[in-house]
Amino acid sequence: MADSNIALNKTATASSFVMPYSPAQAVNGTLTPFSRWLCNTVPASLTVDLGSTNIITSWAVKHMSLAGWKSPDYNMSDFSFQGSNDNTHWVTLDSVTDNTLSTTTRNVQVAYRFVRLNVTKGLRTNAQYASLMEFEVYGHQPTADLSALGISSGTLTPAFNPATLAYTSQNVPYGISSVTVTAIAQDPTSTIKINGTVVPSGQGSTVNLSVGSNTIPVLVTALDGIITKTYTITVIREQGAVLSGLAISSGVLSPDFSSSILNYTTSNVGNDTASVTVTPTTNIAGTTITVAGKAATSGQPTSVDLNEGSNTINIVVTNGTASQTYTITVIRASSPYLQSVTGIPGTTFAKTTYTYTTSVAAAVSKIKPTIVPEDANSTITLSMNGAAVPFTPPLSISLNMGANVFIIAVASASGGDSRTYTYQINRI
């Protein structure tokens, strides 16, 4: 933004002046020996009414040496630049001491309607005289316009225009949980707040997104603190394909369910658990769900058969073009059952019968059982009357007279399940 001399030809007054060198001649843009302000009493002041509050970015004093007087003798020495918005209460904004330059130029960044050059030490050759060719003030009208506005995801609709305040950015994918908004002020002295956070012009600010509609305000405040403008971006984040709940009838999900976590395991389930039900839930209308390839209804259980060992159950959630797959890995224990037990007189084995009682004659001093598990990889542990017996076929196990307790313990190869078979053998 190019700044101009906003004091040019504005109303000027002074604490005093020597005719015909009136204050108006210090703001008329003319550099001639007869067009200047002259005052023979210091301290002195020269005041300019800019007509309205302006953003002031620099000020300058052009001294008499520019019109032929000797330099630095006819340049003023000590003076300050002051501002006011009521022409009564003044603030010193900048000061110069021991000046020798023919043109004194200084940068500021303020907003005022009235400006004043306050002279405390006049011409170097005679400090009681204040005189100058031009008092210039550079700046511009305050504005709260943006020159650019952008967003990291989606496209602004309509295309950006400084005069257009409302924009939308639709169909931001569900997987994008935040966007970066970048705004550039037309006036670099303006302040920008994006979603309530002060952000330097041209620097991006991250804004988190909820599912659905998100309104992001971009507030621009001019340096005067009065002129403001609020641009808004409404970002529509797609609902996506997500579950709000997921449960299984056997085992415990690990980790605890969260919509953003896709992969789960359960504690091992027993061999007798030949199937589980999976209950997925979504609160997003129009979403379809399949569980292990079967169409499922939100909030309703769907049965899934389990093989022995590891089972991966896929829950596919689809909403429009968005699709997401949750998985549950279930370990069903391998068989902890025995297939057969022979060689124990008076017993007939059944794999789900766990207690047997039989009697043998005193002449029978040993039993020679043959034990066959359903799963050859399962672990078998034996004991007779509380003492461990190695499972090293062929077996030959001694009997005491009277009561004998023979125990066969079977643990599944994959862990998580076991069975115990007990034989009460009375030798009489």
Automatic annotation (TrEMBL):
Annotated protein name in UniProt: Cadherin-like beta sandwich domain protein
Residues in F5/8 type C domain copies: 1-140
Keywords assigned: Glycosidase, Hydrolase
Any GO molecular function: hydrolase activity, acting on glycosyl bonds
Keyword set includes Hydrolase: yes
